[in-house]
């Protein structure tokens, strides 16, 4: 049951629950207190007198971070995961779930001990091999700093909150009549014809006077706001920059290959089996030794004597070791054996072992020819990496206080690059990077003309920059924007001219003219659009939207309209028929899916309303940060 | 004072004092103990009752969600009988209301509007929770309208509504008005819903906009506005976006 409840989770609820369980799963080894400001027990918010502590907040931020990372991988920009970015939304969510939780408990929802147990044993973080493990559970609780009782209380609170939320969302529904009305609109189909009168053909013969341009420029100053802009020169360092100029001698490649060969041979892998006798039982040891000497089957003996539960049913098989898996005395004994041979008793901390060497694996080392390209590339990139690091250190010194970056660039033998002007919104190329933009607009760089610090964009990509041009915010001069204004005014004029023709066409249509013939006479293409649904992109989307704005044709006949689309083209459109969507025409699966979707949207909106209502009623205090 | 009395006299004084006050003290202690244990017992029994209701509700949800939300007849019978038990034994409890809300949804899904109405009315009459009352009202209004009683539905939606529920109520009012053929009123209601929508209800916006837009088209039927639509749109050059970035 609770599984199905969880499947139905949506939105906030899912995040709260996933956050909670996710937290338990990832708990190992996380130090919650890193980056925490203030004491762990300090309240960051109070909801109806119930405290949300700094520790709660830090835990929740860490959960959210882990969730984002598990969802989007490691490539999420670091500042999206920073405490500052996550703090506010996470705190808001904590407050709102605290409100819900209290509402659930105040309403009288509880969980019996048995019900809580049923949930605890299902949490993957407390399981080993898919089964609940009491020891793992106790360890996890200790790591999280919960007592058993405390943890059960937390579980109860979260479970009743979930019950409360599910009670609202899972009981939402849509009546058949409402669904029919929605389908009538959303799946409505319209049949219409239209012609496009292209503005392009009129543009060349349209003229715009300077005074018109000037007037438009003066009347629309707000359209020509120019943001503050800078252009930079910069030195960009990456290891690749150095890789090309590095020669790797064949001698070095050979030497590296020899080394690989040596370590390769060291990696002989041996497959061991053992019989383990725990404790100090000399009698048993002697007994097994005797049976081994008598030639009894090792695997059978392992089965009946070995105290190693993990291996005894597999004939004592422990798998492969490269010499570093087992204790030293074990490995030494194993290494001295021939395949099939069994050792005498060997003692380790675990007890006494009889060891059998099952198999030796000596993989063939790859040939020099096979490896040389890869090795050369490896050496080159390692050397490039070294030069990169060296250059990076020198760059910091060279660039500091430099009047221009040309000197440092030459010194390091790397190119000096320049950017176009860009605003705080960023620009093309290097200016697309937020860190670069932030550095360029820092006052000491932008205004004082200093070089920036070395900015590490990634581990292998660093930049130093200097502002070479700084334009304060203002209004673009007329000369710069004139071509755009001319273009715009031309389109407007041409479009107006076209509108007259479009209206003539419309009038002819209304007098009963044949659309196809009229179109042909005007050298226009008649487009027929049957069974068209809402939506669509670009010009076609605009035309469809207009076609759907028209009232349905009535007894007076078809609906004809003219309108301009955003690029200035004029359209004459004749709406022939309107067919509302019909729920009964859908397959039963589609019907069910649609009704479920409507119910789910409704349930989501109702949950949001309840949440807002409770928050409005609650006494919420946020501590000053 | 005790210094001047003999041992015998002290005992006498104690005895007299006990004869006067002993009964009162014993009664007091007994009462206090009874009160303490009584309160404990009461609390435990309240908790036990609440847990019983919770367990019943979990069994209910399990039955009603069986087969991936498609319970068979037997499971539905089980669900209904548990719901009845909750109503009988814990009528003011939250779980009885939640079960009734869920049964109403199941009934509405089967187009059994009579049962849906009954369940929702029960919630409205019995629940102690203001939020559930508001939810039940809105849902009941939709069901009543679907049963051919739009005016009764509208009546439920009248009166002051907390701002958090304003959009929901307005949307349902729009649906009912539309059903009655009052398109202008419906459009106004949808527009009100859009205006009062909470940020967390963004998912509903698209649907509301669609409903409102379809009505503006229908409603203009009387007068033909298309004349005015020609050429009035502001024309933008194809490279309109270039202004802001012309210098880059």
From TrEMBL, chain B:
Membrane-spanning residues: none
A single GO cellular-component term on record: plasma membrane
Bias (Acidic residues): 233-248
InterPro entries, per database record: SecYEG/CpoB_TPR, TPR-like_helical_dom_sf, YfgM
Membrane-protein topology: Single-pass type II membrane protein
Start and end residues of each stretch annotated as Disordered: 209-248
Domain of life: Bacteria
Keyword terms, alphabetized: Cell membrane, Chaperone, Membrane, Transmembrane, Transmembrane helix
Stretches assigned to the Ancillary SecYEG translocon subunit/Cell division coordinator CpoB TPR domain: 15-216
Coiled-coil portions: none
UniProt entry tagged with the keyword Cell membrane: yes
Subcellular location: Cell membrane
GO molecular function term, any single one: protein-containing complex binding
Matching PANTHER family: ANCILLARY SECYEG TRANSLOCON SUBUNIT (PTHR38035:SF1), UPF0070 PROTEIN YFGM (PTHR38035)
Record-stated family: Belongs to the YfgM family.
Protein name: Ancillary SecYEG translocon subunit
């Amino acid at each position: 049951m609770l599984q199905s409840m969880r499947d139905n989770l949506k939105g906030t609820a899912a995040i709260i629950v996933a956050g909670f369980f996710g937290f338990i799963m990832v708990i190992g080894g996380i130090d919650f207190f890193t980056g925490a400001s203030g004491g762990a027990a300090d309240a960051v918010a109070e909801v109806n007198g119930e405290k949300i502590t700094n520790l709660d907040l830090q835990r929740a931020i860490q959960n959210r971070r882990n969730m984002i990372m598990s969802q989007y991988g490691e490539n999420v920009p670091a500042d999206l995961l920073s405490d500052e970015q996550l703090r506010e939304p996470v705190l808001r969510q904590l407050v709102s779930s605290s409100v819900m939780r209290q509402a659930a408990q105040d309403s009288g929802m509880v969980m019996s001990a048995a019900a809580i147990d049923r949930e605890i044993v299902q949490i993957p973080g407390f399981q080993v091999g898919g089964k609940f493990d009491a020891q793992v559970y106790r360890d996890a609780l200790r790591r999280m700093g919960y007592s058993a009782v405390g943890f059960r209380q937390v579980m109860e609170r979260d479970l009743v909150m979930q019950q409360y939320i599910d009670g609202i969302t899972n009981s939402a529904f849509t009546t058949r009549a409402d669904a029919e009305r929605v389908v009538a609109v959303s799946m409505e189909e319209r049949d219409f014809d239209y012609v496009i009168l292209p503005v392009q053909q009129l543009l060349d013969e349209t003229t715009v006077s300077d005074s018109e341009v000037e007037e438009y420029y003066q009347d629309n100053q707000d359209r020509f706001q120019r943001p503050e802009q800078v252009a930079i020169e910069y030195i960009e360092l990456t290891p690749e920059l150095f890789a090309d100029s590095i020669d790797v001698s064949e001698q070095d490649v050979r030497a590296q290959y020899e080394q690989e060969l040596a370590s390769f041979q060291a990696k002989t892998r041996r497959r061991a089996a053992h019989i383990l006798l725990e404790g100090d039982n000399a009698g048993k040891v002697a007994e097994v030794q005797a049976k081994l000497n008598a030639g009894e089957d090792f695997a059978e003996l392992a089965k009946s004597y070995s105290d190693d539960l993990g291996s005894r049913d597999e004939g004592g098989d422990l798998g492969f070791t490269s010499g570093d898996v087992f204790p030293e005395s074990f490995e030494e004994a194993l290494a001295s054996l021939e395949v099939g041979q069994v050792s005498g008793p060997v003692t380790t901390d675990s007890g006494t072992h009889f060891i059998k060497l099952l198999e030796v694996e000596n993989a063939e080392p790859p040939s020099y020819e096979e490896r040389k390209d890869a090795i050369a590339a490896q050496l080159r990139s390692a050397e490039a990496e070294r030069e990169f690091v060296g250059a990076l250190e020198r760059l910091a010194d060279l660039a500091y206080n430099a009047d221009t970056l040309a000197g440092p660039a030459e010194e390091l033998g790397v190119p000096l690059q320049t950017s176009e002007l860009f605003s705080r919104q960023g620009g093309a190329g290097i200016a697309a990077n937020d860190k670069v933009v932030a550095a360029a607009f820092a006052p000491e760089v932008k205004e004082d003309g200093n070089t920036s610090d070395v900015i590490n964009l990634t581990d292998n990509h660093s930049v130093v920059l200097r502002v070479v041009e700084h334009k304060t915010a203002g209004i673009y001069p007329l000369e710069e924007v004139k071509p755009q204004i001319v273009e715009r005014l031309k389109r407007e004029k041409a479009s107006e001219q076209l509108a007259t023709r479009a209206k003539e066409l419309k009038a002819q249509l209304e007098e009963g003219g044949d659309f196809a013939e009229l179109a042909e006479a005007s050298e226009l293409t008649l487009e027929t659009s049957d069974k068209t649904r809402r939506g669509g992109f670009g010009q076609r989307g605009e035309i469809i939207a207009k076609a759907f704005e028209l009232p349905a044709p009535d007894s007076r006949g078809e609906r004809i309209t003219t309108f301009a689309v955003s690029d200035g083209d004029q359209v004459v459109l004749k709406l022939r028929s309107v067919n509302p969507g019909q729920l009964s025409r859908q397959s039963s699966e589609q019907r069910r899916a649609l009704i479920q979707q409507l119910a789910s949207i409704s349930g989501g909106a109702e949950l949001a309303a309840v949440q807002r209502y409770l928050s409005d009623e609650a006494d919420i205090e946020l501590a000053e940060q | 004072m005790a210094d001047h009395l003999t041992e015998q006299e002290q005992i006498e004084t104690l005895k007299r004092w006990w004869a006067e006050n002993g009964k009162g003290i014993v009664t007091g202690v007994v009462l206090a103990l009874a009160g303490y244990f009584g309160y404990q017992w009461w609390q435990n029994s309240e908790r036990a009752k609440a847990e019983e209701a919770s367990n019943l509700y979990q069994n209910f949800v399990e039955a009603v969600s069986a087969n991936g939300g498609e319970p068979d007849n037997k499971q539905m019978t089980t669900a209904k009988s548990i719901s009845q038990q909750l109503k009988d034994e814990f009528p003011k409890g939250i779980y009885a209301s939640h079960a009734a809300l869920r049964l109403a949804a199941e009934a509405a899904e089967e187009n059994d509007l009579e049962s849906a109405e009954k369940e929702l009315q029960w919630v409205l009459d019995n629940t102690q929770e203001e939020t559930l009352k508001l939810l039940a009202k809105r849902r009941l209004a939709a069901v009543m309208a679907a049963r051919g009683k739009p005016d009764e539905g509208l009546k439920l939606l009248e009166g002051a509504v907390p701002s958090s529920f304003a959009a929901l109520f307005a949307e349902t009012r729009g649906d009912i008005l539309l059903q009655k053929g009052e398109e202008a009123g419906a459009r106004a209601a949808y527009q009100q819903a859009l205006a009062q929508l909470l940020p967390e209800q963004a998912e509903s916006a698209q649907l509301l906009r669609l409903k409102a837009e379809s009505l503006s088209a229908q409603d203009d039927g009387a007068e033909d506005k298309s004349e005015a639509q020609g050429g009035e749109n502001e024309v933008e050059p194809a490279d309109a976006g270039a202004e802001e970035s012309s210098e880059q």
